[in-house]
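BACKBONE GEOMETRY TOKENS
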Amino acid sequence: MLRKGAGTACDQLAFLLKQGTQSHVTIQVLPFAVGEHPEMLGGVLKIYTVPGEPQVAYEEGSRSGVLIEDQAGVAMRRENYDLLRAMALSPRDSEAVIQAAMEDYTPCPRPGT
């Protein structure tokens, strides 16, 4: 979610691009044209993987969070997450979309300039 104001929005977009250069970060944009997906209904999903341990999922909403350790529940969330990633733009195309959005704000210098 972008905050209002050209300067603030540019800063947020530039931050995303900078984060995307890290080896452990992948940024993918899910276009509005894809439509609504059940897993996008108001919260954060994190899937934790620790070597030698079963995966766990953590869902967080505006008022609460829940840790899911049940492997069937984790598998369902992982499957939905994988589906969202498959529907999203590639990291390269996502970067291009973010850069194009930055051009909508004047002035909005590109990161690194």
Notes: Residues 36-88 form one domain. The chain has a mean pLDDT of 85. Helices lie at 6-19, 71-87, 91-103.
